[in-house]
Amino acid sequence: MTTATLCNDSYHPPDPVPGAAAPAGIRRIVIVGGGTAGWMTALILARLFVSRGVAITLVESPVVGIIGVGEGSTPWLRGFFDSLGIEESEWMPACHATYKCGITFDGWSTRPGFTRYFHPFASMLDNLTMSQFVHNVEARIQGANLEAHPDRFFIATRLAREHRAPKAPEGFPFDIWHGYHFDAVLLGQFLHDKAVERGVRYLTRHVTHANLAADGSIASVSTREGETLEADLFVDCSGFAGLLIEKALHTPWISFAENLFNDAAVAMPTPIDDSIPCETVSTALKRGWVWKIPLTNRYGNGYVYSSGFCTKDEAETELRRHLGLLESDVEARHLKMRVGRVTRHWNRNCLAVGLSQGFIEPLEATALLFIQQTATTFAEFLDKGDLSEAAHTRFNALMNAHFEGIRDYIVTHYKTNTRTDTEYWRANAANLNLSDDLKKLYSLWMNGKSIVPAIRQQLIGRGYPVFSWYALMAGMGVFPDAPELRAPSAAEARYSLEEIDNLIRRSAANYPDHKSTLAQIPPRRREPALQAYFW
Ligand SMILES: Cc1cc2nc3c(=O)[nH]c(=O)nc-3n(C[C@H](O)[C@H](O)[C@H](O)COP(=O)(O)OP(=O)(O)OC[C@H]3O[C@@H](n4cnc5c(N)ncnc54)[C@H](O)[C@@H]3O)c2cc1C
After folding, report:
1. Which of 52, 59, 124, 476 could be a cystine partner for 109, CB 3.0 to 4.6 Å?
2. How far is CA 406 from the centre of its chain?
3. Could you report the per-residue pLDDT of 294-305, keeping only the tens digit for each?
C-alpha cells in the first residue's frame, strides 16, 4: 500500500559511508548551470561523493540568468532538506518561505457546487476520513446522492481555510505533510552557499560547447573565457537551453504540446495580506490560469497561458485586470515554456536535470520534485557503481514513466473543464490527445467503476495516489451522467458527515496560526513518522 511517508522518506539517497572509495571511474563531475536544478543536484551528489574523493564543479554563465520562477513545492522537498540536515528555521526565513497545505482550484469547473475545490496534501489524520471520502465518491459515481466534494474530508483543507500552520504542537502526535512556497532566487542563493560550504567548486564561466570523445560521450566543455573543463560525468542543468543533453548529444525531445497547450507565462508580484495563507490558489482565466503564491513579504502571481490563443499583451492585460493592477506600473516578466521531455535523461556520460530534461507546466508545482527524484535516483545508481547500459535503460524508463504519469494528471484538469467562455477552454475539453492510460481511467470512472485497484497496481493513473485522482475528479464534479441521483442505500450512507466535520474541526483547532509560526519556526520533530495510508 502506498503511504504518505513516501513524501518524507523516499528519494533519500543512501547515507554516505565513511572511508568508501569513489564510484568506479568517476573522479570528476562537472555540472553546467546554477539554477535550482544545478544547486540541488550539486548538494545531493556532494553529500555522497565529496568525502569519497570526487571533485564536483558547478559552472554558471555570467550572462544567462536563471529562470527565477518556481515558487511552490510538493511535500517531497521536506525529504531533500532533511537528508541534508538543513533545518526549516535556517532556510525558510532566508527564502521568505511559507508552508503549503495544498492548492485551491477556482473556476475550472462550472458544475454547480463544484466551481472550487482544494487538492490537499494528505496526512496521518486523514487516515480517519480518507476511506469515507473514497467510499462516498464511489457511491456517487454509481448514482447515489451523497456528499462527494473533497473539501469536507481533509484536514489540510481546513488548515488552509483557517490560515493555520501544518506544524503539530508539542505533544500532539499527528504530523501534517506539507510543501513550501519560497522566493526562487533566494532559494538558489541559499543552496549555492550550502553547496560551496560542502565542497562544491563554483566557476562563473559561459560554456560555448561540448567536445565529444571518439565513443560519442562528452570529454570536456569549452568556455568563452578560454578554458576546457574535463570530467568523467557531466550534468546538464542549463535550463531550457539543453546545452549538453540536446545540443551536444542530440538526444531526441518529445513535445507534450498536443496534450498541454500552455507555452508561456507572465508574472508579477502583489503585496502580501496581513494574515498569510498556507495554500497556492490556481484561478482559471480566459486562456489559462493564474497562480497566487504567498511568501512572507509578497504574493507571487503568474498567468500561465497558451500563445496559440492569445498574445503576450492580451495575457498581461488580463492578469493586470485580475490583480487590480491595470493602472499600476509594476513590471511584468514574460516567459516562454517548452513542455515535454527528452527521451533519455541519462545519455552516455551526461545526466540532464531540471528544465533541460523536460518540463510539465507548473499547475501542480512538480518540477522541483523531478529534480530531486532524478538527482537522487541517479546518486543511487552511482553509489552502487552501476553505470551499465542496462542501468541507463532502467533509469530512463523510470524517469519517462514519472513524466508521463504526472502529465496525465495535469491533462485531466484541462480535459474535465466545463467552461465554454473561450475557444481555449472548449479546445481543451474537446482534446482527444490522451494517453491510453488516461482513456482507460476515464472509461472506468464514467462507467461507475472503482479505479482503486488499477491505480494501486500501477496499471493506470501512474504518478499520483488514489486520493489525488478522487480529489481531482470529484472536485471538478465529474460523475457519470445520470438523469437523477437516487437515494443512497443504508450501506452507502453509513458515514456521518457531521462526525467527519466535527473530527476535522476539532483536529484543526490544535494547529497554530500560520503567520506567527513563520515568525518563530519550530524545530523539526524527531520522533519516527507515523504512517498515513494514501489509498
Ligand atoms: C512559469 C513557470 C512557473 C514555474 N513554477 C514552478 C513551481 O511552482 N514549482 C516548481 O517546482 N517549479 C516551477 N517551475 C519550474 C522551475 O522554475 C524550474 O524547474 C527550476 O527553477 C529549475 O530550473 P533550472 O535550474 O533547470 O533552469 P534555470 O533556472 O533556467 O537555470 C539554468 C542555468 O544554466 C545556466 N546556463 C545556461 N546556459 C549556460 C551556458 N552557456 N554556460 C553556463 N551556464 C549556462 C544559467 O546561467 C542558469 O544558471 C516553473 C517554471 C516556469 C517556466
Report:
1. 476
2. 9
3. 999 999 999 999
